[in-house]
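dumping the sequnces here before i forget
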Amino acid sequence: MKRREFVRKSIGAGVTAGALAGFGSLGRLIAGPLPQESEWDVVAVRGGEPEIMFDRGIQSMGGMRAFVKRGQSVVIKPNIGWDVIPEKAADTNPNLVKHIVKRCLEAGAKEVYVLDHTCDDWSKCYRSSGIEKAARDAGAKVVPAHSESYFQTVTIPGGKILKSTKEHETILNADVFINVPILKHHSSTHISCCMKNLMGNVWDRGYWHRNNLHQCIADFATYRKPHLNVVDAYNVLKRNGPRGVSLQDVVHMKAMVLSANIVAADAAATRFFGSEPSDILYIRHAHEMGLGNMNLEELNINRITV
Amino acid sequence: MKYTILKKIRVGVALVFLLLISLFFLDFRVEVPEELINTTLYLQFVPSLMKFLTTLSLASAGFFIILLLTALFGRVYCSAICPLGILQDVFIRISNFFKKRKKQWNRYTRPYNVLRYSVLGLTALALILGSTLLLTLLDPYSNFGRIFTYLFKPVVAGINNAVAGLLIHLNLYFLYRVDLYPVQAGLLAIPGVVLVIVFLMSVTRGRLFCNTICPVGALLGIMSRYSLFRIRIEPLDCTRCSLCEKACKAECIDYKAGVIDHSRCVACFNCINICREGAVKFDLVRPVKTPAVAEAKPAMAVDGSKRKFIIGSMAWLFGLAGAGMAQDTPRPTKKSTVPEPRNHPVCPPGSSGFTVFNKTCTACSLCVSICPTGVLQPSFLEYGLVGLLQPRMDYHAGFCNFECIKCTEICPNGALLPLKLEEKKLTQLGIAHFIKENCIVHTEKTDCGACSEHCPTKAVHMVPYEGSLVIPDVDDTICIGCGACEYACPTVPYKAIFVDGNPLHLKAEPPAEEEKAKIELEDDFPF
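..and the predicted 3d for all of it:
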C-alpha cells in the first residue's frame, strides 16, 4: 500500500471509529473532526483479571465495534521484545492479547495479525512470552518481524528529527491498529508504554537511539497513531526494565488504561507507575507537539473498579 | 548371490547418514532435536576422537567403534558413515549420467603412499603439538560441515525466502524469511576450494581424495590392510573380464594380477555386484602371510625423514598465529571515535575459554549453523591461525541469548561441553567495557541506554550523568559477556561498549537479590 492511501485509510477508519476521542484541545486543531462515540478521553480500570478489565473498559468506550468494523483487518501490536516468561512482565500479558484477538474477531474483523520486532531472538520471544500460542489459539495470524524485508520505507512529515523510517508492511496494510503495550520500567526512557512500544513497528531502532531517542519516539507518534491503546498494567516491572532481572522486580498492579490517544494513555499509565508524565521527556515532547494532552486533570477520565 | 546384499546395506546406511547430517547443517529453523544430532554424529571419527581426548570418557568412544569396525570389515566408515565420502559417491553418480560408458570406468593405479602417510603424520604431529589447524583443514566431516553451512545453507535459505515471500501474498506465514549473516568472502573461499577439489577428484578419479589427502582414510587404511573380512577375487571363478577393476572407484583392484590394495578399498562392494561370475567375495581372511613388518616400515620412514620439515612448518604456523592476534585493531576514521581496544576474541559458552577450545575444535561449524541468534561466526585470524574458521562470538552479528544453551549441547568434538542453563547464566565469557568518548549520551547529550536495555543481568546499568541524563556503567562482577550491550550499541563505526574475551572463562556473581518491588497505590486511581 502506498503511504498516501494508507494515510487516507487510517484517517477514515480513525474518524469513524471515534479513534480521535482522546485528543486534547491542541490535538483537535490538527486532528480535525471531533470524536463521535466515546465520552471519555481515558478509561482506567483496576482490580480484575486482564480479560475482565478489558471488557469493562472497552464497553465504556462504546464497545469493540466502535473500533473494529465488519470485514476490516486488524493488527495488534503487543510488546514481545524479550525471551522471558509472562510472569516477568517484560512482554504483554498473553491472556490479554488472546482476549483482544477474540473480541476483534467477534466484532467481525476479517483478519487479526499479531507481531512485534523483538530485541531478543524473535522465535524464542514469540514462544516464551506465550503470545504466539495465545494469539493463534484465538484465531490470529502471528506474523514474523525479524527481517528487514518485511519493512517498507515511510516518510514522517510531522517528525522533527525522525523524517523517515521503515515500518512493518502488515501494520501499513491493516485497517485498524491496536497498540497493546505493557507498562514497565525502562533503563533509559524511564518508562516504556504506548509510544515506546511503537519502536517495535520499525526496523532500525539504532537510528532512534543515535539521534535523540525521546524526540524520535515523539516524532513517530505523529505518523502512526493507533486507533486504540490498551495498556497492560496487570503485572508491572518496576525496576531493571525493560527486560527485568528477577521476579522480585514485578508488582501485581491489576490495572489497565484504554485510550484512543497515545499521549493521554501514556500519561495515565505513568501515574500508575508512580511517576509524573511531565518528567518523561518523550511524553512532554509529544504533548508540546500537540499529539495529545498529558495533563490528566484536563482530561475526561472514566475510573472503573472491577 | 548372498554377497550382493552388502552393497544394498551400504547404500541404505550411507543415505541415512548423508540425509541426516545434511539436515543438521541445513536446519535454518533450528528444529532438529539435540538427541538425534548427538546420536547420529557419535560415530564421526575425528569429532569423536577429539571428544575422547578432552573428556577421556567412554561415552565419546565412537571412534573406537569405527576402529573396531575397520579391523573387522575394512573401511566401511568411508563408504557408509563419512558424509564427505558419501557426498563424493553422489558426485560420481551424478557425473556418470553425463559420461559415456567407457569414461565411467576406473583403472588400477599405484597408491600415493608418500603423500597420504605424510599428510597423516603431519596432521597427527600438529595435533600432538597442540594445533588442530591441519586437522581442521583436512578432516572430512568438518569439511562437509563447512561446505554445507557456508555454501549450501545460504542457497537453501534463499529458496526458502523466495517461497516465503510468495506465500505472504497468500496471507500464509508458516514459512518465514531467514537472513543469514554474511560470512567474509575470504572465509568462504576455504570450503569453496575444498568443494571444487573434492568434486573434481571424485568425478575424475573416484575416491582419490580419500586415499591421498584424507588423514582419516590414511589411518583407517593402515588398519583395513589387515582387517578380518576383506574383498578377494576367487581365482577359480574369475574370467579376467576386468569389470571389477573398472567398477572400483578406489582404483585399488588390479584384475590382471588378481590383487586388491586393501589399504585403499573403501568397502563399497561395487565390485561384488558387478561381477557376473560371483568371483568377488567378501569373507574372513585366514592369516597366512605376514607382510606387517615389511609394509609398515615405509610409513615410519616417511615420518622420520620429514621431521625437520614438520617442526619447521609448525613453528611457522605458530609464528603466524601471534601475528594474527595483533592485527585486530582498526584505525580511527574521520568520525574521530575511539577504536575498541580488544585484547581477546570471545569464545562460545561451554568451551571454558579459547586456550582450551582452540586445541579441540575442528571447525565443523555445526554450532554456527544451529545458533538461533547467529552470534557464532567463523573466525579468520581473531584466534590466530591456529583457530582459523573456529567459531567465535561476533557481537556485530548477534548476541548470546540468555536462555539458550543450544551450541553446548550439540558439539560433536567436545570443544563445547554441555552446560546447565543455570551454569551458563553465570559463565563469564568476557567482560563489557564502556568507552565514554564514543557514547551517544556523552557526545550528543541525549538519552540512549540501548546497552542497558538489552543487558539480562543489569551488569550494564544507567547512572546519573549531566542534568537528567543517565549514562551506562558496568558491574564487572555480574557481567557474563553475552554481548547484548555491544550488539545493541548504535554508535558507528566504533561501539561505545564492547566485550573483551576472557582467555579462560570465569564465574560471574549472580545479580544481587533485591527486595520485592512495591506498588505506589494498592487499589485506587492516581489521578
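Residues 186 and 521 of chain B are 61 Å apart (CA to CA).
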